[in-house]
Every structure is written in structure tokens, then in C-alpha cells.
Amino acid sequence: MSPMNAIVVPVTAFQQNCTILWCTATMKAAIIDPGGDVEGIKEVIAEKGLTPEKVLLTHGHLDHAGGAAELAEAYGIPVEGPHVDDTFLLESLATQGRDFGVPAEGRNVTPDRWLGDGDTVTVGDLTFKVLHCPGHTPGHVVFFLESGRFLIAGDVLFQGSIGRTDFPRGDHAALISSIKDKLYALGDDVAVLPGHGPMTTIGEERKTNPFLQ
After folding, report:
1. Could you tell me which residues come within 8 angstroms of residue 4 by beta carbon, excluding any fewer than 6 positions away?
2. Which residues contact 39 (CB under 8 A, 6 or more apart)?
3. In this predicted model, what pLDDT tens digit does every residue of 49-90 receive, in sequence order?
4. Nearest of 67, 60, 66 to residue 82 by alpha carbon
5. 35-66 burial by CB neighbour count: b if 16+ within 10 A, else e?
6. How far apart are CA 40 and CA 48, in angstroms?
7. Could you tell me whether strands 191-194 and 150-154 are parallel, antiparallel, or unpaired per DSSP bridges?
8. With a threshold of 0.85, does the pTM exceed it?
9. Within a 10 A sphere around the Cβ of 2, how many other Cβ atoms?
């Protein structure tokens, strides 16, 4: 049996990949980027018989963080991440809907733990390395399970695309640097679960992504 399992629950009108990831030895789970549709997330957790241990956030946009406060409160668990540079976004979740062109649904959230480059987060017996990858937002982080060659990439890297940088404090040059300096170094065999769309690999994106050539 694999030490890790995960299921993607598409949430919000943006079909954001909320990931419920768990340690198969302990059945303890992290809810990663719960942007909304909280009841649907809860149903999957109950169905799988999981014990939520924490909420992990890659960054502070509404479609990734809008349901974090509600889930943390419901399960009595902490919120970890993103980097402190996304404070301004997490403090505006209740009003971000106007910027995204959808009704505001999120609740502002203050993480119990901000994350920095080189930190680690645990889920049951699993340990993920945190990489600070600014560009899409200034405080964006990703989560890398080295033993499983698996990356939760948020909105840094997608299949055939990269994160948008036309939002407040987006930085295209910083995003490209994050991908080429930090993600490429993880290895071509690493499986990438982005914040939207299908999975890919570092190697596939290095070779074929038109934004990275």
C-alpha cells in the first residue's frame, strides 16, 4: 500500500483542485486549498473515514482559501500556510469576490502558522518540504513529498501553462524564476498536481510548456 493517498474535489466556479491528502498508515488528512463548497469536502472526508489534521494553503486567493476558516472551525484544526507575504489576500477573502467577478463567499482567515522556504509540514507520518514560490502571489508556497516524488503546485505551474501574474502584486519574472530555479531542481520525474486542471510532470512541462521555452 502506498504511504499516501489523495483525492481531488473540484470546488467553486473556477473548478479549483481542492486536494484531500492522507497518510494511509494513520488515516490523518490535510485539506489543501479548500476554496469553497465546504459541504462537499466534508462529505468526501466522511466517506473515506479520514481524520482531518490541518488545512494547508498554497496562497491567499478566494478560490483556494475561501473555505479554510469554516473547515478549521468545524474540525478544530489549524491552518498552515501560505507565506506571510499573502497576508493582504487572506485579510480580504470576504471581499475578493468582487475582484474575481463572483459573489463574495469566503471568510477571512489568519493562519495558525505561516510557512517559509525550507519549512516542513506533516500529515500523519508524511513530511512535505515547503518551497516559497512567489510570482502568482507574493506569498505562494508549494508542498513537495520527496519520498513520493509528488508536488502540490497550487497556481505556480499547470499542464501547458503557468499562473497568472496580472493580479495585485503578481510578478511574471518572479514566477518564471520560481519554476526554473526551484521546481525544475526537484527532478523531471516529479508528478505535479496543479491548482486547476489535470496532473502533469516537471519533465513534461520543462520540454513542452510554451511559457517556459
Report:
1. 21, 22, 23, 24, 126, 145, 148, 150
2. none
3. 999 999 999 999 999 999 999 999 999 999 999 999 999 999
4. 60
5. bbbbeebbebbeeeebebbbbbbbbbbbbbbb
6. 13
7. parallel
8. yes
9. 7
